[in-house]
Fold AhpC/TSA family protein.
Amino acid sequence: MVSLNTPICDFGWKAPDFSLPGVDGKTHTLAGVRGGRGTLVMFICNHCPYVKAVIERIVRDSRDLQALDIGVIAIMSNDPHDYPEDSFDNMGRVARHFGFTFPYVFDETQEVAKAYGAVCTPDFFGFNDALELQYRGRLDSSKKESAPADAHRDLFEAMRHVAQTGHGPKEQIPSMGCSIKWREDPTRPSG
């Protein structure tokens, strides 16, 4: 397992479009999940200990952000051939078990992860209402273990500020997680 940190926020960078299948049986696009006051695109997976440590907080913060008219989507870009816990069927089980209120979609070709420059799970991209990047930081101070229950909610507070002002905080602490599991042979089907 390789642990990586996300790069600093490239303020104003425009969100690339996508069209990906969700565990709910629908195809989801950037326009379809876009919120009136901002959009959160996050790269997560099922097997990563960093994601497992915060998945309930991701669900909580996503629900709270959706109440602020921020659209939310989670993208799984890992190669499930080498990481079967990240299979599409298991994605559906995880989404149901944790009560995802946002689409959980599969980036089988890994083109979306590459377009976004995603490097790890979790990796958070917070955009304003013009789909300009304003946040590329961590959820909170959790690492492979959950931070204390009263930990500062970095992602939530940053995105609330984006919803109110259109701008993210200048100071951001990078997210940390397992590297994206890239396919060694891009021509091989992922299943």
Summary: The chain has a mean pLDDT of 94. Residues 3-15+28-179 form a domain with the Glutaredoxin fold (CATH 3.40.30.10).
